[in-house]
């Protein structure tokens, strides 16, 4: 386990309750790929605002689960969009890979 | 914090499913009832129909973001009463400040700390309960509009010069009545009488600002300004006499004493505002116009007309209101004679 900080995750589990941690994980596993998809479409459409908002959401959720690296990558993209800079290179692919790792770890953490 | 907290009805607004679930479950765990909305537009729809005690509002949302929701709420007389806690990421400090300036009650950083969530939500609910009580109390003395205005202006003490109509009302034959009747009977009669008069005054947008003995002082055009405050004052006076006529019919049928009143209205600039302390304040007004209204009310005894007004008031009335010019009167303490008019009652 490296992508997720287990202390943060356990605090989250304590707050949501054992019963709901699965619901939370499933919501994230459902939503996060859609956010990356929305960011891809936004790049093509030069829609900075949608891109920024989705990067922001992904960052927020990654922080919630203690996925610091994923959150950092999303935050970097959010800041670029805030500066109206969509020349992101391969950062979306890197983000996508990081999400896969986090998703696999989260699946293992389901109760 | 005490554990006396009553549960509330809460609305969680967040476009992000994880955040919605997390907040909703946390709040339900504290005993609250929670509904959710995915964007600002949906939130406003639910707020208008759902009678919520508190809203937790995300800033970043598609369709309508947190600012836009907040802006709509602040301008809406009903929605303004629902406290809003902004939920935001740590790096949105500037946005949070902007929201609190706009009128948000409080804020919480995401990911939300459960201890803070519980404390902030309970504090906001408690504040709302106190405000609701305060609002209820103010409504006993004024119309809903006046109460809202007062709550909005935040009871700031201190006066301002406003153009308003001042009304004095007094019971004509009160002394003889008190001598004839038991104290309990008098109080009951007075309570009925006040209920009717207050209804007529607040129904026309007036604010009762003093009760002196059996007299009532009311002001029209402040604290809420109405262009037609002169007309409102006179229409209130007419309704007072109509209500009193029905009241007297019932009293006569029960072989109980009847009440006769005199009403005086004067219009002009008055200094109006809250006087007192932050804990106990009354809305009052002072100035020549107030003295004149009292003198005119007194004059009803002399001329035997129940409603008298000054010239400035008469100039602000619609043609349906019939009046008689009674000519100039020199009142005690005034150098200039004042033109006085009598209002014809509807039954005359």
Question: Which labels suit this protein?
Answer:
A: 111 residues, Four Helix Bundle (Hemerythrin (Met), subunit A), 5 helices, 82% helix, elongated, B: 348 residues, alpha/beta, Alpha-Beta Plaits, 2 domains, eight-stranded mixed beta sheet, five-stranded parallel beta sheet, 44% helix, 26% strand
Write structural notes for this entry.
- The complex is a heterodimer of chains A (111) and B (348).
- With 111 residues, chain A is an all-alpha fold.
- Chain A is built from 5 helices and no strands.
- With 348 residues, chain B is α/β, with parallel strands linked by helices.
- Chain B folds into 2 domains: 9-139, Response regulator (Rossmann fold), CATH 3.40.50.2300; 144-343, Alpha-Beta Plaits, CATH 3.30.70.
- In chain B, helix 8 runs antiparallel to helix 9 (229-253).
- The mean pLDDT of chain B is 84.
- Classes of the chains: A mainly alpha (111), B alpha/beta (348).
- The interface between A and B is medium-sized, with 22 and 19 residues.
